[in-house]
Amino acid sequence: MPATSVSRSRFRSYFTLRRAIINISLIVYCLVLLLGFDFAYSTLTRGEEKQRPVRIANPVYNHGFAANFDGYDIWGELRYRLMTNSLGFKDASPRDVPLKPDSRRILLMGRSYTEGIGMGFEDSFAGMLFRAGQERREKIEFLNAAVASYSPVIYYKKIKYLLERGLKFDEIVLFADTSDVTEEASSYFCIDDDPKYRAHCAAAEGSQQPDAVQTNFFLDRFVVTNRVRIAIKRSIQSLLGNRRRSINTDRSRIGWVFPGMEIVKEYKPLGVDGGIARAQQNMRALSDLLAARNIPLTIVVYPWAQQVAQGDLDSRQVALWREFCLTRCKAFINLYPAYFAAASADKDWYEHLYILGDDHLSAAGNRFFFREIEKYLLLQGQESSVGGD
């Protein structure tokens, strides 16, 4: 090969290598800048979670939210804004809530679905109810007393505590979750009024645990980067369909509604029948408490994604609370048919209604839930409406 050709080849190789080094350096430089700005932004926007936890133990009803909190919480891989009012309820701002309202007031009770875990108040169906209630000519104030991992014994103990504290409200709408029976079979014995259940009390129960601030260095200090990572991860999950396939068989927390699941470990020590009996007993105590004060009770039931995927339309959960409500509720609202209809009309219903890789509602899922529940709680004639059979 002539010398000139060799020189040209070496020059081109050198130029190509130099250009690659420059491009890589620019990418690294931009990445460092992005991480630096992300770190600064994330550090500056950290709220009260640096000083105190939002999820705290309570000696009366086991656990709840700290009052007047304005900061961030972590759910799985998500870091999201969380604010509570003076009552320790998730809210749009850390506002003072008077014990006596100047308009109709409805108290919402439930667990993580009703709390709207993983997202801000405005994106939860409870937040949408609050906003819609305030936009009415005759206003309705919706207060969200729900917190993750509640169950009937906590529903009863917390509502009793709030009433004794002097909180006034016109109605309770309780969103009964399929995992309530699991919790009643296995947890919260230390706060139960019944001695036969308190006999199962153990020191490891949540109400006796020290408070702790939930932290994660990556989630706390690189918020933007983490959101990009989650978006990429969820796109890959959606393409692979791993979570979608798993809900076809997953029954880990709601197996009691399916035959043959009575002896699995999640239901110890009481078992499924014992969990059902305890759930009914605490709900009877709640309905008696409310009836004595002429406060109507509405119970709403809704399916988990696993129940929709596995065809549990005529669920044991629905039958349990429908029968209970025959004599003890103002209304029984069954949202199972709405979910099954949505699944029939949309093959990608899970991806559209749920946080991908999770069992909880996405922002779109919360909007769907709101549109269904507003038919009973906000539209004309709600005073006498009873939900689907």
Can you walk through the features of this model?
The chain has 389 residues and is of the alpha/beta class. The protein has two domains: 1-44; 52-384, 3-Layer(aba) Sandwich (Rossmann fold). It has helices at residues 3-44, 112-115, 125-135, 152-165, 180-186, 195-198, 217-221, 223-240, 242-246, 271-291, 305-309, 316-328, 336-345, 349-353, 363-377, and strands at residues 55-58, 62-65, 70-75, 78-83, 104-109, 140-144, 171-176, 297-301, 331-334. It starts with a helix and ends in a 12-residue tail after the last helix.
Strand order across the largest sheet = 6-5-7-8-9
Strand percentage: 5-15%
Largest sheet: 5 strands, parallel
Under CATH at level 1, the class of the largest domain stands as: Alpha Beta
- Going by CATH, what is the homologous superfamily of the largest domain? SGNH hydrolase
Q: What is the CATH architecture descriptor of the largest domain?
A: 3-Layer(aba) Sandwich
Encode the helix/strand succession as letters. HEEEEEHHEHEHHHHHHEHHEHHH
Shape: globular
* Count of DSSP H/I helices: 15
Whole-number count of domains:
2
Q: What is the rounded Rg?
A: 25 Å
Helix/strand-derived category reads: alpha/beta
* Separation, N- and C-terminal Cα atoms: 88 Å
> Could you list the spans in which at least 5 consecutive residues all have pLDDT below 50?
206-213, 381-389
Query: How many β-strand stretches?
Result: 9
